[in-house]
Amino acid sequence: MSDLLIISGAPSHSAPTGVVVSFVEEQLRAAGHRVSLLDVRSLPTLSLLTEDLRDPEIAAAVSGVLAADGLVVASPVYRAAYSGLVKALLDLLPKKALRGRAVLPLATGGSQGFLVAMDYALHPLLAAKGADQVVRGEFVLDQNVGTAGAAAALEAATDRFTTALTPRLRKAG
User: Which residue range forms the structural domain that includes residue 73?
Assistant: First the structure.
């Protein structure tokens, strides 16, 4: 199976984005993938914001992204934009770092109006880093996190992501 990395911009494990990340992580593990979780909030903030690649934790985070077969990028949406910490991490990557690997964007937010952040903020950020295989992700309203409807939508997104991983695995084999 694949080595996957989930980049979480959740402010806590119990926040809506954290709950979504936990659910998707369980789904991917159940499908037999090796999954690592990178909570961006746990990185040293000063080193992250000053792009200090000499910091061992920052260097390890960047190495983890570059080594993964596929990525899940999960962020809360604030004022129709993704988490600044997620952007700060992705800004550390080389220009085409995400080329050739499946990427699943996930977002949560308090208003249906924030759904536009997926297409007009998160997708362009991923494309700028070379993501050429962005799987259709999911936006989950905060109030719907933990419901059967949200679970079904996230399961479908996870299935799309797992299917997108297959061609890359065949090429590597």
Answer: 3-172
Q: Give the separation between CA 21 and CA 37, rounded to whole angstroms.
A: 9
C-alpha distances in angstroms, 77 versus 20, 45, 168? 13, 19, 30
Q: Which two tokens stand for residue 97?
A: 């770092």
The H-assigned helical ranges of the chain are 16-30, 45-49, 56-67, 84-91, 116-117, 123-128, 148-172
Question: What is the domain count for the chain?
Answer: 1
Phi-psi sector, 119: left (phi>0), alpha (psi -120 to 50), beta = alpha
Which whole number is the average pLDDT over 2-19?
97
The CATH number of residue 149's host domain is 3.40.50.360
Predicted confidence at residue 78, as pLDDT, reads 87
Each residue of 88-117: pLDDT tens digit?
999 999 999 999 999 999 999 999 888 888
Q: Is the pTM of this model over 0.85?
A: yes
Do 3 and 137 form a contact (C-beta atoms < 8 A)? Answer: no
DSSP 2: -
